[in-house]
Design brief:
- It is built from 12 helices and 11 strands.
- With 270 residues, it is an alpha/beta fold.
- The strands form 2 sheets. A 6-stranded parallel beta sheet has the order 8-7-6-9-10-11, sandwiched between helices. Strands 2-1-3-4-5 form a 5-stranded mixed beta sheet, sandwiched between helices.
- The longest helix is centred in the middle third of the chain and has 17 residues.
Length: 270
């Protein structure tokens, strides 16, 4: 799991209305709508579940410790989707116990290696990597007006990239993958029959629909942006140069946490 920085999370709670309107303008869907679409549930089902599934966010001190503003950012997104939610006062096991005592039906918790949402009643665990992939594919599908039989380049074959490939294939997209580690793309070639791209710069000249799941910065330059380019970028940091961003910002979906957390929640109530 990419470790976020506290600076990237400051102010998320104050910007959710603006971000939601931006998503609606770009994709035709709200944050809850994208999350519901990604989870394969009706938006009304997510809304109905909000009245009966309180959510606890539990700070975890394991490894490098608690990221500043992380728990509060997760809680603010969950609350924005319509769920009663709280950050536990205690950390770790004591925090989990507190959340259960306070009536939480769903809990969110993360350490250096894993970020999950757990529905305690359904014994269901939702991993952030899968949820983020599904959420960004849903956003990309909305941006593109459909992905069936469309050429899509996935950049990065880590956990999120692999999940994105699986989701894209289910939607009928024609998927190509680039990763600096060619062994990873070979695995996806065998498992899903994707096209393996060996040169990213050349591939970016040929594809207009991109899903960037790479942690590399500035791998997409202005010369790679066409008039019809659309990008769903779940990688941290954003993989576009400043000039590339300015050319595609109205056809780009990117955030540090919002789509992933909202999709985790929608998948947890399924």
């Amino acid at each position: 799991m990419t470790r976020l920085t506290s600076e990237s999370l400051v102010g998320i709670n104050k910007e959710l209305d603006e971000y939601n309107m931006e998503l609606l303008r770009k994709t035709g869907c709200t944050l809850r709508g994208i999350a519901s679409r990604a989870a394969g549930v009706a938006e009304t089902e997510v809304r109905d579940a909000s009245s009966s599934a309180p959510v606890a966010v539990i700070p975890i001190t394991s490894g490098e410790g608690i990221i500043g503003h992380f728990s509060q950012a997760v809680q603010s997104i969950v609350s924005y989707i319509g769920f009663a939610s709280f950050v536990t006062r205690e950390h770790d096991v004591a925090g989990l116990a507190e959340g259960i005592r306070e009536g939480a039906k769903i809990v969110f918790l993360a350490d250096d290696n894993c970020f999950v949402a757990m529905n305690l009643s359904h014994r269901l665990v939702v991993d952030n990597a899968e949820a983020t992939a599904r959420g960004y594919v849903a956003a990309l599908e909305c941006l593109a007006g459909g992905l069936y039989s469309r050429d899509v380049l996935v950049i990065g074959a880590g956990q999120v990239g692999r999940s994105a490939v699986c989701t894209l294939k289910k939607l009928g997209a024609k998927v190509a993958v680039f990763d600096i580690n060619q062994a990873k793309t070979e695995i996806l070639l065998r498992e899903y029959g994707v096209l393996k791209e060996e040169n990213l710069a050349e591939a970016l000249q040929r594809y207009a629909i991109l899903l960037d799941a790479s942690p590399a910065a500035e791998i997409i330059q202005a010369e790679h942006i066409k008039a019809n380019t659309i990008i769903a970028a779940c990688g941290i940091p954003l993989g576009l140069s400043t000039e590339a961003y300015s050319l595609v910002k109205d056809r780009l979906v990117h955030d540090p946490l919002q789509i992933g957390v909202a999709t985790m929640l929608a998948m947890a109530v399924k």
